[in-house]
Amino acid sequence: MRFSFAAGLRRLLLPGLGIVALATPALAQTTLLNASYDVSRSVYKELNPAFAAAWKTRTGQDARIDQSHGASSKQARAVLDGLEADVLTMNNALDLDAVAAANPALVPADWRTRLPNGASPSFSAILFVVRKGNPKAIRDWPDLARDGVQVIVPNPKTSGNGRYSYLAAWEHARRAGGGDAGAAREGVRRLFAHVPVLDTGGRGATTTFAQRGIGDVLLTFENEISLLRAELGADQFEVVIPSLTVRADNPVTVVEANAAKRGTTALARAYAEFHFTEEAQEIFARNGLRPVSEAVLARHAAQLPNLKLFTVEEAFGSWAEAQRVHFADGGTWDQIQAAR
Fold first, then answer.
1. Structural domains of the chain, count
2. What is the 8-class DSSP label of residue 234?
3. Cross-strand pairs, 249
4. Which one of 143, 188, 235, 291 has the fewest CB atoms closer than 10 angstroms to its CB?
5. What tens digit of pLDDT does each residue of 101-127 get?
6. Pair 42, 147 in one domain
7. Quick check: helix, strand or coil at residue 98?
8. Residue pLDDT, tens place only, 307-325
């Protein structure tokens, strides 16, 4: 059932109109498992205690949220293979669609309609991180394919970060080439020819760049950059904003069959809806994710400046179409890799 962003907030915040009835069965479990992508750790370290406090206030019940982190596609596969997560929080819709297609009892096909804003409470974008002083003078996508430049980006077959980076590079090259798909393919081929290591996820790619010292530029989510600078020092790296990049929505859904089996449905739904409250939206913004609340985003404009963004749907028709053409077995990505 659809409901508006404002209605979602009212249901959570108004006394007596909680997300779920207060008469939750006494034997219902009060521990959730959130299977999430691998660069969301800092967000949930802050969001989970905030939700637990809100849940306690409204129901009198204690709740604990456990986390499982990994490359987005690997997390989706883990749930299909039996990981009993109650909630999935991904960095792209494709992985939720994959679970829904393989087992709709876990994630219903209409998962987008069950929460506001297409079930995405926040979004990010692919930006560039370079070393202090930007010694290779990297400014935009064409610079990534220059001689002597090494690019660190995770594998598009296993990582949402990698897929978004690939699609952003493709769309920039396509527009620069007057809309020609051949120009886009060549742009992506040249970029990935400069990638010395293909880690499985965004966190691994960040480790390769920041701790192992490999590469001249890291392609990663904007929120990962905030974490990187906080952990290793803002004076070691600089951020480069490309002329065009991709909007990366972060959808959330209840894993219905798992929650029903574990007796956590009410808690899991409340947790998913909490992502859209102003409190959670502020947490996203503080952690470098762009909240879908325009009011909250405006308050953090200094840290989250305007970007020129496109969506996967605008450029590729849909995530399903992007997957079929580019990332399915034998698709464009596999063809580019085979030619290296």
1. 2
2. G
3. 123
4. 235
5. 999 999 999 999 999 999 999 999 999
6. no
7. helix
8. 999 999 999 999 989 999 9
Phi, psi angle pair for 131, to nearest 5° = -75, 160
Tell me if 280 sits within 8 A of 121, measured CB to CB.
Answer: yes
pLDDT value at residue 28: 54
Helices (H), the chain: 5-13, 41-59, 72-80, 93-102, 116-119, 160-176, 181-192, 202-210, 222-232, 256-262, 265-274, 278-286, 294-299, 312-316, 319-322, 332-338
Residue numbers of the domain that contains 255: 5-121+250-299
- CB–CB of 138/128 below 8 Å? yes
Separation of alpha carbons 91 and 39, rounded Å: 9
List residues bridging with 247 in a β-sheet. Answer: 125
Answer yes or no: do 168 and 26 share one domain: no
**0.85 cut: is pTM over it?**
no
What gap in Å lies between CA 88 and CA 81, rounded to an integer? 14
What token pair was written down for 221? 């989510």
pLDDT, tens digit, 9 for 90 and up, residues 63-88: 999 999 988 888 999 999 999 999 99
Indicate the pairing of strand 237-240 with strand 309-310.
unpaired
